[in-house]
Backbone:
């Protein structure tokens, strides 16, 4: 397997071991070989996992309502989606906004994967060909002052994370090495200043394993650099920091997904499986406050969808078949149930030069938990 050979070579080149974050980056993003750079289908029932936009257009219609409110308060503006997956969410948002006569000037998509970009272009050209000329694909963030809405749905969970392990009150970094031609974990006491600062920021159990996304703050800063006025909406699965690093969550949050099979072995199918970690939403809020972004709201996905009018978007029973009703109701349950996506997934809004209340956080704003 080419990717495995490449990873072995990288480990050898770096003296026999690499940080787990480096391994995760190689497994997911090596050009032409990594999970997100290859040509396999990743989203939907025939992929490895189902995202909310793939599950039901209701999710994107609710998000479109929030975008419409923001754009109307700004006077006009654009939408920038970071990592657009299959393109389903972009297509559904454009269709919903045109129905409301509230299309953005442009819908930008920042996509680094050539394969995903091609799939997005095909999806949007098929579902909403009239608006295809409003969609602009980017490989880097725009160089101009951005006014509008920036969307990031299930983006942060796919960023490489550093794993750390606390053993007998000593901080270790989890690294990846090769033994008997197999990838193996290795832990070593660390002098990494970022990990040490994180370790000294709170009290830990004697034995504990978890992860930290050191790319998160630079990523927030990069969005802040271009945002002149508007709102950043981040949707992902995760917790406030006191829940993320709860003593009972002693094995971290790292998960792998392959053909709808979830497991904990990041070395099982390198390049063929997704590797993710939950999001620390307190870290997002702290990074935002350091760079003059306002935290405008934080809530669960269920609360956000209900506040943006989920149930008003449901078609009347007399206009749908029994099968459509069953599929729709199952999707709503998955999107909103505390046992499914409703509570695990969170929505956080960051803003600049935006003073209005956001409808998605009207009834259950949880900023106090951050």
Residues:
């Amino acid at each position: 397997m080419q990717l495995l050979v490449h990873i072995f070579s990288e480990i050898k080149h770096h003296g026999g071991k690499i940080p787990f974050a480096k391994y995760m980056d190689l497994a997911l993003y090596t050009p032409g070989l990594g999970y997100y750079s290859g040509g396999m289908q990743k989203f939907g029932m025939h992929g490895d996992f189902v995202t909310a936009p793939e599950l039901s257009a209701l999710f994107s219609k609710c998000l479109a309502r929030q975008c419409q409110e923001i754009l109307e308060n700004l006077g006009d503006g654009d939408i920038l989606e970071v990592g657009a997956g299959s393109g389903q969410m972009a297509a559904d948002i454009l269709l919903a906004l045109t129905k409301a006569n509230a299309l953005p000037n442009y819908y930008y998509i920042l996509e680094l994967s050539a394969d995903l970009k091609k799939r997005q272009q095909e999806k949007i050209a098929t579902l909403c060909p009239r608006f295809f000329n409003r969609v602009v694909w980017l490989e880097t963030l725009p160089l101009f002052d951005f006014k509008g809405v920036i969307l990031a749905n299930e983006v942060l969970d796919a960023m490489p994370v550093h794993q750390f392990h606390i053993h007998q009150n000593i901080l270790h970094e989890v690294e990846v090495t090769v033994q008997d031609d197999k990838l193996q974990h290795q832990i070593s006491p660390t002098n990494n200043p970022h990990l040490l600062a994180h370790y000294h920021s709170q009290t830990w159990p004697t034995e504990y394993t978890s992860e930290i996304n050191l790319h998160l703050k630079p990523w927030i800063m990069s969005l802040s650099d271009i945002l002149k006025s508007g709102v950043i909406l981040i949707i992902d699965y995760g917790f406030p920091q006191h829940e993320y690093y709860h003593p009972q969550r002693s094995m971290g949050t790292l998960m792998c997904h392959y053909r709808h099979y979830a497991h904990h072995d990041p070395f099982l199918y390198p390049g063929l499986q997704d590797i993710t970690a939950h999001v620390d939403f307190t870290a997002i809020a702290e990074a935002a406050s350091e760079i003059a972004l306002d935290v405008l709201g934080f809530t669960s996905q269920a609360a956000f969808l209900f506040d943006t009018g989920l149930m008003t978007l449901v078609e009347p029973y007399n206009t749908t078949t029994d099968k459509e009703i069953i599929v729709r109701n199952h999707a709503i349950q998955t999107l909103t149930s505390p046992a499914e996506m409703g509570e695990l997934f969170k929505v956080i809004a960051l803003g600049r030069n935006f003073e209005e209340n956001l409808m998605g956080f009207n009834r259950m704003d949880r900023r106090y938990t951050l």
Notes: The chain has a mean pLDDT of 93. The longest strand covers residues 227-239. The chain has two domains: 1-34+163-210, 47-161+213-369.
